[in-house]
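Write out the 3D structure for:
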Amino acid sequence: MRPLPTRRSVIVSVLDIGSTKICCLIAKLSPREDSAVMPGRTHSIEVLGYGYQRSRGIKSGVVIDMDAAEHAIRLAVDNAERMAGVTVESLIANISCGRLKSEIFSAGVEMVSESVSESDIQRVLAAGSAHNVAEGRAVMHALPISYALDGNRGIRDPRGMMGHRLGVDMQVITAEVPPVRNLELCVNRGHLNVETMVATPYASGLATLVDDEAELGVACVDMGGGTTTLSIFVDGQMVHLDALAVGGHHVTMDIARALSTRLQDAERIKTLQGSALPSSADDRDFITVPPVDAETDLPNQIPRSMLTRVIRPRIEEILELVRDRLAASGFAGRVGKRVVLTGGASQLTGLSEVARRILGRNVRLGRPLGIAGLPEAAKGPAFAASVGLLIYPQVAQIEQFEPRTLGRRWGLGSGYLARVGQWIRESF
């Protein structure tokens, strides 16, 4: 993936592969002047094409049926191509599988000259990324958090500063190789190349957080269908991420089992009638539940309070897991009193109120910001990760490492090494 041109527009294609939906966006990124509104954005985004399919062959972000997943990806990309009138050859994809793991490393190098040059920054970033990674895992991101110059820490951009030794605190995000390879293979079978892969929690934070939140400290919780991911931003940089293999689809499964109905009917009931909070009228309001076999069984009538009693325990479980992961991250004190909920499952009625009680923080619902051309159906929290993939090229710079070095470190096969180098990134 090459840096975006600064003087001309470029077409970017992204693919959001989730457990409940697969979405392809084709957008035109045009250079824009510096502005007080979203100052971190270097390009304006206009969506040209949009394709959406129900996810098949994907469970908790992991490929479980290669043929079904490939077919769903082909349909989503084809719909977006027809709408945009362009042909997609390569795209940016997201990843939430592979047991994403976040670690912070520190490194330092002696400077060649008296002032910090671009080569010094590249050398210290390479040193920060050179830490040993467990066998069978690949580096997805290598993000510098802050720099240090002769022991003075907290420097954001050291270029041109005087000193003798340059250091960096870097967050390295790794994932297990087999699930990542299977996900890439599904895309490749559709005659598409994966230009780069972005961790889903990072993309969601880029799309939904405003600058003040990222500066002061905030946690972004993306509640998807099969996974719930957590990303923490402090001083404008992502400093930690985590992922849980539980999401909104588990609530649907609970409803289907408890009410003895089909999954598609359970999903509809959850969306239209479900709530995470009880109300005084729940015992008086009744819901019609279609049976599993409509030919032999009659529909059931249940009070809404029964549905709430099924939904609430699972929602509380997910939020309690998020609270525990946030406390274990070591950044709970830096987050302060701000949490942003996003993702399709975050739209459940009453979920924000339950989250405020369990997390003990102010909670708001995050939607994609600063993008034009999205259809009305795609402007909600469910498409935060998709939009974040369009924002990522504006903040990312990619560093290529020699594949042979990576092979010695991770013990990977030679056929895969040529692509692994494209996955190592850092964001300034």
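The first strand starts at residue 10 and ends at 17.
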